[in-house]
């Protein structure tokens, strides 16, 4: 193994970034990128809100109203109960403090006078007990109501999201700038956040009302309690994690250590043993470790915190004690107006008030996220598909019974999300006659599958035109086109359902399975057609030592294992099922046989041709043989262009790209025959 040197450059270092809108901070192995803000914005408390006027506030409030109203309408009674319980939770703390204060005061008065009023003490104890029961019952009720409401909310939005996601076409869903679908879990969290803000505002009103009414300086105490949260939220402590930030591992030695460490996992064991790589990995690992040195890999949050001076912490903590200092100073001037009990009560009120204000302030920055998420949620329904549906039915009076006829006129195409500077398909023109068997060949990345996707109108061309039976493909109804096309691709995906449902309903399933060559695979499996190959599994546990639980867990996690070729047979069976509908007029097999053995591949192609019933068929393949010889037309692609088109004989006679590709394979057989 050749010695390789770990690259020492950071991934951004080489770029000439002429962007001075952000600054970088190195924190151990991390590089933190932070926006540069104006001096003025540093002085103003940062709430991460970017209101651009009343209009925006109005539209935001309307949006949040729509969201809460939609949830309310799901179950008005349950929502009202939840709302009332949250209101109760908002005043519950203040009531508890009031009851405790009353009890303390009654006892203190009795102790000072030497004649405790047993009735008053009993009443205070009873009130404290009632408040305790009320508080516990309230929490218990919230814990019971909340999951029921959560289920209803998530189910409602799950339905909505599923329908909105399923209607998106490929180019639209690949475009991350237009669609940002929030996870349903966050929708519930959003609702909880809004209810939480409401609850805390109610709590704050209750606490302020109560604290202000306290004898001996309630108003002053209320104001002093607000100082610490205000200081810690905005003025003193700049918190980069509430605004925009990016951090990444910029230390490449650290990345190399991590990558080499992965060789010790099971994943690479076979390669390590077969390639005799063990000692090389250890050597490289030690070298990278040495280069890494003692640089810290603690998380960037704590590294950032350790960088700041302790002054904001000191000031914030001291400001939290202002109510205590105030009480101490007041006691000096008017000792008789204060008692230890009143101090304890005021202390508790001040603390509770400070806590509520701190949380409310910290939540202000969350409003932006809440609004963004709600906006994204409703935007999903407004996203327009990039592939515009046509209104011409297919088949129609002009459609040929023999199958779809295609004409490509100077077609060029690039994937919207593609990174290549070159077009994926370049100025491609050709004609595919109805009922013909067409084979597309060409090297990897030459655009074969992309061409198929254009014929299936999974994407639209950038320039040029595709005609189906002489009419632009864009004029047809998409659903009609797709119903008349069968696509069997190399990227086979098994559905997370039973095998029967993977192919179709049970009717005809067995016949289709046989045609796809999947009948034997399925008969080998314990549950036959009811087997789920890629089921959704959610079994968790740790059953160490408990034999029965161990075997239950193992069974729950067990998946039926089939080979890549066997999977391809099952997906092929699904395509045969589509043929049985009688609607198919164009079928494509895009390298569906890459994992099949030669016999199975030959059989598959033969059956596809038979099942196609003479309709237009396209096969994309790297293997030359029966197919290319029988094809009515071969399209040979290279770098996105159709460099040659014609029959096998014509292309062989031309001695160009196709004959070269053919001869490479034929030569291998000729050599092995020697
Ligand atoms: N979804 C996609 N988004 C962006 N680029 C893509 C996408 N699919 C394919 N490409 C790019 O388009 C080019 C042509 O790919 P395509 O799959 O059509 O080639 P191919 O001839 O079928 O290759 P192969 O023989 O390996 O299957 C490649 O450079 C590929 O990276």
From TrEMBL:
Keywords: ATP-binding, Hydrolase, Nucleotide-binding. It comes from the Eukaryota. Pfam families: ABC_tran. InterPro entries: AAA+_ATPase, ABC_transporter-like_ATP-bd, P-loop_NTPase, Type_1_exporter. GO terms for molecular function: ABC-type oligopeptide transporter activity; ATP binding; ATP hydrolysis activity. The keyword Hydrolase applies. Residues 406-664 form the ABC transporter domain. PANTHER family: ATP-BINDING CASSETTE SUB-FAMILY B MEMBER 10, MITOCHONDRIAL (PTHR43394:SF1), ATP-DEPENDENT PERMEASE MDL1, MITOCHONDRIAL (PTHR43394). This is P-loop containing nucleoside triphosphate hydrolase protein.
